[in-house]
């Protein structure tokens, strides 16, 4: 859904939260840029400029507002604007690729020249890849200054700045204030073992539906859903921790992340993964502009306002779970996953009470695992072993754009599995496992539905077929439970 200047003007005048993060308002008289929801008196239209990203506003010489806090705005995934190459590059930057790598490295991975990549970014994002990465670090640091109890030195390193001196210089150049002066409350120095952060989203948000999805698939010991809160353990770059996510209090549109993390430098990646897991950057207006016109899906979208695509913490984990779930029920797949974790997962003896106390097995652990003893069918057990070996050896990299073709080349992994993995962990809004029984039954309107017919039907749902899949699953669940 491309935003015109007229749409942006109406959204800023009405402070429409559905547009939060989809564009930013720059005021030429103050040299400040704001979110559409900024509470200050709207400036005159003649003094306003619109930018699609915070990076573009920063590149144009504007500084982030201290009232509406652009660092808390949901992300703009640009899912339907710009070429696929730019979208993939943005995802890699969100993953922290340019914290250690270079633009030349990123361009080489995408098989283009650095000059061409930069030109595409300037055209479609309004800023260079380097500027996008810099903005990501700067706004994440401001987020931590506002909400965390980390020391300023810890914030500097957590947000990817090479030194405290560099961090102080960049912050002062941006806001004309030191990091200490920017803090909105008195923070306690040190202590990153427990961190709480608000993670913003665009309303509405179907939290109950998303939580139900995770609850039905939660692996005991690794994750849990209780009292309106999702909890899980994790391993990240060899470090072990845990987190919980629940709706934040107050009037803001946000979830609250409570994380235990041993290495503060892992915090940006943890936040990025959690945002994707809960689909916090979904562009619901764009989704509704396509799916809301379909008489099959429209009633589901109205009944479950703010529908999201449930993501996954780890792509290898969801790939294993997808193979386990081939041609069996969700409950049966969960049982097999629970046995696998109990047998091969690592126990966390120091996990806090009431928190998940096991880790999902790493690829090397499953490369030669005898899964048949757990009740896994031989062909699926072999598929998991082969996948685990390929990932452990580095031959399959889930961050690469060609990962789907590499997956289906493996025995035991077909289109359904690859599409499901792409939908849950590849963050592909157009992934669509058309052969799924639940989707086929959910799409029926009297006549028996086949995968071929459903694929043809789903052409009208591009590029949001993953959201259509969630609608069809919801419709099928309502049909089988006697709901409307």
Automatic annotation (TrEMBL):
Keyword Ribonucleoprotein: no
Molecular function terms from GO: alkylbase DNA N-glycosylase activity
Protein name: DNA-3-methyladenine glycosylase II
PROSITE patterns: HTH_ARAC_FAMILY_1, HTH_ARAC_FAMILY_2
Domain HTH araC/xylS-type, first and last residues per copy: 87-185
Cofactor(s) annotated in UniProt: Zn(2+)
Catalytic activity from the UniProt record: Hydrolysis of alkylated DNA, releasing 3-methyladenine, 3-methylguanine, 7-methylguanine and 7-methyladenine
Domain of life: Bacteria
UniProt keyword annotations, A-Z: Activator, DNA damage, DNA repair, DNA-binding, Glycosidase, Hydrolase, Metal-binding, Methyltransferase, Transcription, Transcription regulation, Transferase, Zinc
EC number: 3.2.2.21
Pfam families referenced in this protein's UniProt entry, alphabetically: Ada_Zn_binding, AlkA_N, HhH-GPD, HTH_18
